[in-house]
Amino acid sequence: MSSSQPSVSIVVPVRNEADNIAPLIEEITAALDGRWVYEIIYVNDGSTDATGDRLAAIMTQRDNLRQLRHARSGGQSAAVRSGVRAARGTIVATLDGDGQNNPAFLPDLIAAVEKGANVGLAAGQRVGRKDTGFKKFQSRVANGVRNGILKDGTRDTGCGLKAFRREVFLMMPYFDGLHRFLPALVRREGFDIAYVDVIDRPRRSGVSNYGFFDRLWIGIMDLAGVWWLIRRKKPTPDVTEVKA
Question: Which of 42, 184, 198, 208 is the most exposed place for a label (fewest CB within 10 A)?
Fold first, then answer.
């Protein structure tokens, strides 16, 4: 590891993305080198292909690259949480490991958090999505229902490109699917959200690890749970320490 304390940690959850590892790391490096002291944390979510070996090989050449490994797949939210808990930077940025999220937008997201005194989250909002028509349709429906119920003011919570203050993320109640409800939960804690339009691009290699019907009903239950949490939130009273 580098002896310098990173100010920014980039967390990339991956499962079976071996062919996407090296190109994405090169792009992250091109976007961030010379701008921040940073680390890259790949969370290997129980991959069964050569993902771990590809990461290990690159780690011998880069002292700011780390690999965390889940013994079995826990899903995207679990992988992001593992990465954030291990992060050394005060600002954490995330992106998907399949190459659809362009690292060129990371500086804008990180800067939005740095410059906003009360900004807890900078959320990427995809334009020109490259997914199938069905995936775009299901995303529009899910985002519309979520926003209609939670009033989080966010048109696209599924974009993996995000940046946030580490301490704010660790305040969130953890559950599987948390990453889809970050805007609503960040607002619940009294923080602002910045939005950055990002240009989507096709997956570079491999196939998606996430389907529609395997998360539909769980997503509905999560939505109800987050709605309940927001309804139960009361303003936190001002606190002062009384000294003797």
Answer: 208
